[in-house]
Design brief:
The chain is an alpha/beta fold and about 190 residues long. It has helices at about 5-15, 45-50, 75-85, 105-115, 120-130, 135, 145-155; strands spanning about 35-40, 60-65, 90-95, 165-170, 180. The protein contains seven helices and five strands, in the order αβαβαβααααββ. Strands 2-1-3-4-5 form a five-stranded mixed beta sheet, with helices on both faces.
Length: about 190
């Protein structure tokens, strides 16, 4: 059975049995916080449990490496929506040890693009349009440094209120231990 069919079949019984009821909550986060974290599968349940967070407590934004790479990109927009429209009063940027973004090789990934059918013409067009694929695909050497950079981008954003603490942490994906990198209260 294809994965989509498996999911839709399960979902039908999930709805019929009202299994959604324990997860019902409002769109506003009870703990008034927004978390930017990596999309790593090990963090899906571990991260909220390690922080004593439940469904409805926080807004969660996930991307590769928990990297906020552009002050006017979709991650920063989501943070601002959480603050201005959804009552978030604090921002947490949480990277993790053993992150795949610490070992990503842009040239290797471009090779994967080609293997999957992306043409050299497309890659060259992007380069000539000013897209630096290698820079765009680059990760980081130090997760702590990456978290600091993302915290700085958020903290210094011209549209973020000065009274919003922006914290930076790193989680161990094997134990859930959180290490503080930036205390947003110390500004």
């Amino acid at each position: 059975m294809p994965l989509l069919d498996e999911i839709l079949n399960y979902n039908e019984s999930f709805v019929e049995e009202k299994a959604y009821e324990p997860y019902q909550t409002s769109k506003l986060p009870d703990k008034r916080m927004v978390v930017v974290s990596c999309m790593d599968t090990r963090l899906v349940e571990l991260l909220p449990r390690s922080m004593n967070l439940r469904n409805g407590d926080f807004k969660l934004i996930k991307n590769a490496g928990a990297i906020i790479s552009h002050p006017f990109g979709s991650v920063m927009r989501s943070i601002l929506v959480a603050v201005y429209e959804l009552n978030a009063d604090e921002v947490f940027v949480i990277g993790h040890h053993q992150c795949g973004m610490s070992s990503i090789e842009p040239q290797k990934m471009i090779g994967h693009f080609k293997e999957r059918g992306v043409s050299n013409d497309t890659i060259n067009t992007l380069k000539h349009s000013g897209v630096d694929l290698e820079k765009w695909l680059s990760g980081f050497k130090s997760v702590e440094e990456s978290v600091r950079n993302s915290v700085d981008m958020v903290r210094n954003h011209p549209l973020l209120p000065d009274d919003i603490p922006v914290h930076g942490l790193v989680i161990a994906p094997d134990t859930g231990k959180l290490d503080l990198v930036v205390d947003g209260y110390d500004r």
